[in-house]
Specification:
- The complex is a heterodimer of chains A (about 290) and B (about 325).
- Chain A is an all-alpha fold and about 290 residues long.
- Chain A has eleven helices and two strands.
- In chain A, strands 1-2 form a two-stranded antiparallel sheet.
- Chain B is an all-alpha fold and about 325 residues long.
- In chain B, helix 9 (about 175-185) crosses helix 11 (about 200-225).
- The longest helix of chain B has 27 residues, at about 200-225.
- The radius of gyration of chain B is 20 Å and the shape is globular.
- Classes of the chains: A mainly alpha (about 290), B mainly alpha (about 325).
- The interface of A and B includes residues 110 and 275 of A.
């Protein structure tokens, strides 16, 4: 029984990591139909900034959190103005945008590894505290609880934002038909800038809550980005809840397969889930309504 | 491929072989071999991405399959290289077929992610399947003993001539019936099938061929470098191959070979700045995509186009 409880907690915690990345993917996808392949690296940037502000500069937690979120949102804005806008203006093919975001992810990775070092950095937890006992040998670390709660909260916030507010509906309208949205009087460029910043901010928050558990390293981005996308695909693009549930399913599959089958092959399983899902049902378990 | 470029290619290969045989500088010979390997990888991806318009960010997976299969057959199973090399290529092509057949139905970012997932699976297996791949310790290939002295001494010639041969294959495909078919698939898949071109057949065919090219590159790499480790075949390698194709001008064989040359030489020139070279590629690719979608050699024309844009009125052709 203890094993299973521990596995579920481990699955939930890594699932939340994938879920929060899936959320960041979903936001940009909703407004532009672009899949931002630099998403994993934006989360890595968040984690590295967390190390820089929290551990290296020893700043107070609240200030550090704000600075990390501001810094990553600025990265998102830069990505939009320097890369996505010019490509969109040139009517570049989808593949060129994909390659450009991949190139951005490499640039970010290299910049951090040059300026901060190639090693794994330890990042302190946002809240000090002892592990909480849940009876028996089952213990939960406070950072795990923060991770799960913050992710769930973010998912709820963005579901609310996208479906219940004027801003969210405007963002979805742009994703549905950009020209029509422009004709209807929406400031599309500004709104897309907002989605890129929000998505990057989410990645920053992700970096803040992931780094106490996984540490921060310039090379953590790629694998996390791919697994986050797997979560997106499994749940269905375009729906924040679906991405989160997809993330949790992948997290649970990873923790259970590493315990019952083999720990060395658990990464293979999550990529296999992605591959099989793409082949069998690329629209996901809860496909978005309408759209293309 | 016309007669002039055939002769030019032949002269280039002969010059390279003379250069190597005169043993002026073994360091340069080594760089030439690496250029050849990168060129084969990029030519293979160019068939898939450049000519057929299907993205693949998992080429390093096929590269690894070629390298590991040949090495494992030779070292662990004591198979002669005459059997091991073709088997490695055939196995890789079979895997490419099995993977390509279902995933090439996908489009856009779904296809991109599926190929990434394939590459990551191969990388994880190379890292974790210890009894077969030895993980991070890697596999040591005593090239001289495996290939025999005659072949081992002439490996440079084999690599350079094969690269030339594969280049000719690519050029001939471009100007053949298949080349026209895959270009029509790239431009408009539905249109192509409307005029009777089975797009899925051609897509899979090119994917398999691209996988085969990567396998050949992998075999050469394994025997030239004598050690193979999983890090060589990670996602960054896949991205780097893709970048070479982008820098060379998507779909241009000669451009891709030139880009492979630049991308291989650049880190040697930036020797004191290890780590910066990947950064330079990343920035370069962004610049090329934004300013010159036709590749690095399209960038040369950029000032001219800018001048036209600034000084010639809309509708003018720039010739005054």
């Amino acid at each position: 029984m203890n094993d299973i409880a521990l596995l579920i907690i481990a699955g939930l915690s890594s699932g939340s990591i994938y879920g929060i990345i899936a959320l960041a993917f979903t936001l940009i996808y909703n407004s532009t139909k672009i899949v931002n392949f630099a998403q994993g690296s934006l989360l890595m940037s968040g984690a590295m900034f967390s190390y820089y502000f929290l551990e290296y500069k020893q700043m107070p937690v609240v200030l550090a959190v704000v600075l990390v979120i501001v810094a990553t949102s600025l990265l998102g804005l830069l990505l939009k103005t320097l890369i996505v806008d010019p490509l969109h203006k040139k009517k570049a093919e989808l593949f060129n945008i994909i390659i450009a975001t991949l190139a951005v992810s490499i640039v970010l990775e290299q910049l951090f590894s040059i300026f901060m070092g190639k090693r794994q950095f330890r990042v302190p937890s946002l809240i000090e505290g002892d592990p909480i006992k849940l009876g028996g040998n089952v213990m939960v670390f406070p950072e795990t609880i923060i991770l799960i709660v913050v992710t769930a909260f973010c998912v709820f916030c963005f579901w609310f934002l996208l479906n219940k507010t004027a801003l969210g509906r405007a963002i979805q309208a742009i994703g549905f038909n950009r020209e029509a949205a422009k004709l209807a009087g929406l400031k599309t460029s500004k709104l897309i800038a907002i989605t890129f910043m929000l998505s990057a901010a989410i990645s920053g928050i992700g970096g803040l809550i992931v780094s106490p558990i996984m540490g921060a390293s310039p090379y953590m981005g790629v694998a996390l980005g791919v697994k986050g996308f797997a979560a997106c695909i499994l749940g269905g693009m375009g729906n924040p809840f679906a991405g989160f549930v997809g993330g949790v399913i992948i997290g649970l599959a990873e923790s259970f397969s590493s315990f019952y089958i083999s720990s060395t092959y658990s990464p293979v399983f999550s990529y296999l889930i992605l591959l099989v899902m793409l082949i069998v049902k690329p629209s996901g378990l809860w496909p978005e309504k309408g759209g293309d | 491929m016309n007669k002039k470029s055939r002769i030019a290619l032949l002269i280039l290969i002969i010059l390279l072989i003379i250069f190597n045989k005169s043993r002026i500088n073994p360091y340069y010979s080594q760089i030439i071999q690496m250029i050849a390997i990168n060129a084969i990888l990029a030519l293979g991806l160019n068939l898939v991405f450049g000519h057929t318009g299907q993205i693949s960010i998992g080429q390093a997976g096929f590269y690894a399959l070629g390298a590991y299969t040949s090495a494992i057959l030779e070292i662990k199973l004591n198979v002669s290289f005459l059997i091991a090399w073709p088997s490695a290529v055939i196995l890789t092509c079979l895997v490419a077929y099995a993977i390509g057949k279902p995933i090439l139905k996908l489009h856009g970012h779904y296809l991109a992610m599926a190929t990434i997932a394939f590459g990551m699976i191969v990388e994880s297996l190379a890292t974790n399947w210890l009894p077969v791949t030895s993980g991070h310790d890697g596999i040591y290939i005593p090239t001289r003993e495996v290939l025999g002295p005659l072949v081992a001494q002439n490996l440079f010639e084999i690599v350079v001539i094969s690269t030339g041969f594969l280049y000719v294959v690519c050029e001939n495909i471009e100007y053949s019936r298949i080349g026209r078919a895959i270009r029509s698939v790239r431009e408009n898949e539905i249109g192509a099938s409307a005029i009777g071109i089975e797009h899925s057949k051609y897509k899979v065919m090119m994917f398999v061929l691209g996988g085969g090219f990567s396998a050949i590159a992998g075999i050469f790499y394994a025997h030239l470098n004598t050690v193979i480790t999983p890090e060589v075949f990670n996602m960054h390698t896949s991205i780097q191959i893709l970048m070479i194709v982008v820098l060379g001008g998507i779909g241009s064989n000669i451009g891709v070979v030139m880009a492979a040359t630049i991308v291989t030489i650049l880190p040697e020139l930036l020797y004191g700045f290890a780590g910066y070279n990947i950064l330079v590629y990343g920035v370069l690719v962004c610049i090329v995509l934004v300013f010159a979608p036709k590749g690095l050699f399209g960038l040369i024309e950029y000032p001219k186009r800018l001048k036209n844009k600034l000084f010639v009125k809309e509708g003018g052709n720039g010739i005054t």
